[in-house]
Amino acid sequence: MDVKFFYSPDLDETVAVRPDGRISLRLVDDVAAAGLTPLELDHDLTARYAKKLPEKPDLSVILRGFENQRIYVTGDIRTPGEYPLKSGLDVMQAITTAGGFLETARPDFVLLIRKTAGGPAKVYRVNMSDPMLDPEKDGGSLALLAPTDVIYVPRSGVAQANLFVDQYIRKLLFLNTINLGVSGIYELNDASKNRN
C-alpha cells in the first residue's frame, strides 16, 4: 500500500503488511494494519501523525494490491493445501477451489480459524449446508477470508466410526480370516491325504 502525504511528500512511503499484521512507517514506527479498511487505517495514521507533526496531516492510504496473501484449506476435501487469497474470496469459493468436499466430510460444521493481531486465534463455525445464512450472524459460507485463514473440514461422525471399524475390526478380522483360511485349507488337504 501507499501512504501519501499531500503537504509533506518527504514522508510518502510504500509498505507491505508483514505476517504479524503490522506496517512500519517513519515517525510512528509499527502500526497494526491487518483487518482494517484503507479508510480506517487512514484515520488511525492521521491521529498518530497529528501528534508528531506541527500541523494536522493530510494523508491518504492507497491499497495497491495483495502480495503473497495465502489461505489454507485442509481436512476432508479433495485437494487440501495452500491457496492464494484473491480479493473477495469466501469460504464456499475456497472449498470449491480445493476440489470440494469428500463424501465423508461434515459440511455443516466447517471451521474457520483466523489469527488475531496480538492475541489467540479465533475459531468460527461455518455451516456449508445452508449457503444462504448470514455470514455475520449465522456463520454462513459467504464469509470473506483474510490472509492466513485456515479452513478445516472435519470428518462426519459416521465416517469416523466407519474408519474405526475399518482399521480395528475389518482389517484384523481379514488378517485372521486369511490365517485361519490357509491353516484350514492345509488341515483339510492333509486330512484328505490321510483318508486316501
Model description:
The chain is α+β, with helices and mostly antiparallel strands and 196 residues long. It folds into three domains: 2-62, wza like domain (wza like fold, 2-Layer Sandwich), CATH 3.30.1950.10; 70-155, Outer membrane lipoprotein wza fold like (Roll); 156-196. Helix content is 30%, strand content 24%. It has three helices and ten strands. The chain has a five-stranded mixed β-sheet with strand order 7-6-10-8-9, with helices on one face. A hairpin with a 3-residue loop joins strand 3 (22-25) and strand 4 (29-32). It is elongated, with a radius of gyration of 29 Å. Mean pLDDT is 78; it is low at 178-194.
List the helices and strands and how they pair.
Elements: E1 2-5, E2 13-14, E3 22-25, E4 29-32, H1 38-50, E5 59-62, E6 70-75, E7 81-84, H2 91-97, E8 110-116, E9 119-126, E10 150-153, H3 157-195
Parallel strand pairs: 6-10
Antiparallel strand pairs: 1-2, 1-5, 3-4, 6-7, 8-9, 8-10
